[in-house]
Every structure is written in C-alpha cells, then in structure tokens.
Amino acid sequence: MMTVRRLLLLCGLFAAACAQQPEATVIPTLPPVIVEPAVEDAHSAPTATEIIRATLPPTWTPEPLPSATPTTAPVPTIDVTTEFMMAQPTLPACAAFDIDRERSAEAFTLGTSPLVAWQAVLAAVTYRVTLYDGDFNVLQEQDVPTTQHVFSPDLFRYDDFYFWEVRPLDRFSVQICLPRGGRLVPQL
User: Fold this and answer.
1) Domain ranges, ordered by start, for the chain
2) Quick check: 124 and 168 in contact, CB under 8 A?
3) CB neighbours (10 Å) of residue 106?
4) Can you tell me the distance from the alpha carbon of 141 to that of 137, in angstroms, rounded to the nearest whole number?
5) Looking at the domain covering 80-187, what would its CATH class be?
6) Comparing 3-7, 65-69, 99-103, 140-144, which segment has the lowest mean pLDDT?
7) What strands, in cross-sheet order, belong to the sheet with 162-169?
C-alpha cells in the first residue's frame, strides 16, 4: 500500500509542479491575405489612369509674345450719381449722347487749348464739363450751355495724364444721362 500511496503522492506533486509552471504562450498567426482587383460597378469611381504628356524637343526655346506698352493711367472711379443712373433705364434722349470725335482731339500740343465736344441731348439745358488730373483730382468744373468746351492751356503739364467728362443737366440741374468723356494727352 505504501507504494500506491507513494505513487499517488508523486503524481500529486507532479501535477502541482506542472500547475505552477507557466504555459508556453501560443501566438496566433494570420493566414495570408490575397488581394484581388476590385470589380467596378456603375456606382464606384473610375480608377485613375496615368496621363502621359508630350514633351518639347530639347532644342525648343520660348520666345516672348509681343505685348502692348502698359499704361500707368489710373482707372476712373464711379461716383454715386453715375452708379444710381447705371441702375435706371436709359432715357431715349440719351441714345445719341456721345463724344463728337470729329471735333474732339485726344492728343494736343502742349501750350495750346484743347477742344472737347459732344452730341446734344434734347432735354439738356446745360452741360457740366469736368477736367481731372492723373490722380482724379478735379482741376476744373464748369457748366456750359453749348456742346463744346475749350480748356485753358495752363491746366496741363507734359508728364501727366488728364481725363475729361461731360454730364447733361436739365433745367433743375439734375443729371439726365450717364457721363461721357475721354483722355487728353499733351504732346511736345
């Protein structure tokens, strides 16, 4: 009996010893993933294709395009009256109102009096003529009863830009049409 007891005791000790030792950790491995090309359906975005662009030959040299001489003249601003009138329907009387290019000259000799002229407006009693320098400062503003105006030669310098405009006014001094005008360029 003793041997059976010893045998049982040895088995118990052996079982206890095995229970106290840590078991080996098994690291799971994932099976390999095989990626198959996706099948496009009507709702999926198309796949991008490589764009191959043509190249220029190594002997090609760019040539600059001819360009107009840039003007440094500032752009006129629109005043409140003009902005209001631009939003209104055009009066039939204003249809013919424009610069008279046959009588007006854009370029003139420095020291002479430049003449500006325009077409008449039926309802106009007077015309307000304004001369601006290159910074749009008012150099002269005058109401005239005729369809032309001559500016004094002492208002101009050779190295500056000048602009003029005319506004037709009714008997209440209310502007009737949008202003018209142009540049004045003094030359030597």
Assistant:
1) 80-187
2) yes
3) 13
4) 11
5) mainly beta
6) 65-69
7) 107-109, 180-187, 162-169, 126-133, 138-144
